[in-house]
Amino acid sequence: MPSPSGPPTHSVLVCGEVRTCLLPSLQALDGRAAAQLLRLRADDHVRVSERPTMYALSPEVLTGVDCGLPAANGAKVRAVGTVAVRGALTEGRLLQSTAYVSLPAAGPDVRRPWGQYLVRPGLVEPLGKLPRQAVAEGVLRGAGRGELDLGMIAEGLLAQLRRHALLDRRVPFKSSPTRLRWVARREPEGGRASLVNFTVAEGGLRAMELLLPADVPAAAAAGLCEDLALHDWLLTTTQYMLDNSRLGAADGPSVVEVLHPVVVHLLHLWMPRAHVDPALGHLWDVLEDRPGFSRQWENLGRRIRDRLALQAVPRPYEALSRR
Amino acid sequence: MLIFAASDKGGAGRTVTSANLAYHRAMAGDDVCYLDFDFGSPTAATVFEVADAREATDGRGLHAYLIGEVGEPAWIDVWAKTEHPVLRNPPPGCGRLVLMPGDVSGGEFATSDDNLRHCVDLLMKLYYEYDLVVVDLSAGRSYAVDMALEATAQPEMREITARWLVFHRWTHKHVAAAASLAFGVRGIIAGGVARGHDEEALRGAIRFVRAAVPDPESPLWSQVSPTQSAWMRKTDGDLRQLASAQGVGYSQVLGSVPLEPVLQWREQLITAEDVVDSQIANQETWQALSRLAGRLTDDKYWEQA
Prior knowledge:
Chain A is an alpha+beta fold and about 325 residues long. Chain A has helices at about 30-35, 115-120, 130-140, 150-160, 220-245, 255-265, 285-290, 295-310, 315-320, and strands at about 10-20, 45-50, 55, 60-70, 80-90, 95-105, 105, 125, 130, 180-185, 195-200, 205-215.
């Protein structure tokens, strides 16, 4: 079986979308349960690693597509091929699904027999030339009706996983899922991958642009994006719980009630780069430098611990009244 | 928690009241999502005053999502998009208020396996995300009601707390119609049981909300003639009797909202400013809505009678 990332030499553009959410289960899943959840194919294994964090990655499944590509300039480009989709579970707690494709610079002008597309898993070929820049912008902007919608494909897998009989369908706390759309333009072999842009939009939407040398597999880029999406979700969710919830300037047991799930379920999940391809690990440095992902996380963690510590200190008047 | 808002007839105050309840809960700090499942005539966008934003999402709303035309339904952040000057500045500490609009072009449709799947996926996803999900269903025994019953009967939704509010006005016809919508041969309970719901559990999850209820004791009517006053009291008493005979009596009522010109004519959210500053709305209405909003999740009001 050829690698689902396909022959990287052909593609000039890789795009994908990652969806990140809390696993609907009161208990975090252990490695065995995670493997069972992510067993999307009978003929392939789930990769589970226990160090430094428990991380399970499903085999890739393919979704056949024959539709228009989203293009920012309105160009109508029909494309045919297969989208690779995979699921991942981190620490048995955070569930992600990614749909991604590689696109070559040009394809044959007429549609070929289906079998010829199937031998290139994860590759979608345009009929004619690919307007690379317009499609990259179109993917980041989001697909219109009838266009290749990677988010919809990723969401489909996420919905399927959330329905799994293994899950009790109860969440320890309410949280919003996030979506990260990403595009990677292929660069000549031997170069160094770089992060062009990472933007945070409203409604849990994130956009990322990369430059990716031809020898780095598309799956590695997907892995990097999953890692970033996961940590971005942690920041977003924890920040929201601290800022916008009923917590506010509240005091007393309600503080513990709100912060308890963060301490129990989230604080230990921060582990950037843990499962990222070494060829792409340095891209994290950019985000660590500015805006400073880990810096913000440490700050959040400190705030939470301080708020909880304050709860343990008797208020001055309470201390006085006990005298 | 999921709240399904149903009514036998249009004009029973279903949309405007349930939207106000969503607003009260969001102000109290809950993250609230309001789904406009009124497939013939989606009006929730008007109540939240996000008509422009709704127009921009037309064709990508709940209707298009359920029939599989779009992967995700469009949604509108009410605080950010509303044209209502007060709502634009929500107080700190309030939760999110999100509207998923219907499609103007979308009519009723039968429930197929595919759109049932979409419906269950959406409700589950929102349940994981929001403290409260309010689903505004088309009036009568509509496809929207069928779909809600069918979806909540699915094994994956069995564990989820879903409650039903049946809105009706305080008239003979409306009381009888509301009772028939809940308990009739083609009613919610009968339809639910046919889809695998437990009858007792479903019965226990239905409460009635009386909308536009004139209070004979209100100072509003203090100037009426003694005959009129006596007649009003008698009619009110008769209605109470009818309601209780139909199974829509006191123990089954979650609350009433008084007759309120602002709700009747403007069909919009009543803000604290409307009550305190401009005083166009009555204090009693605000309190009634606030009480109702609290009771949505107060188990005391949902215990079996």
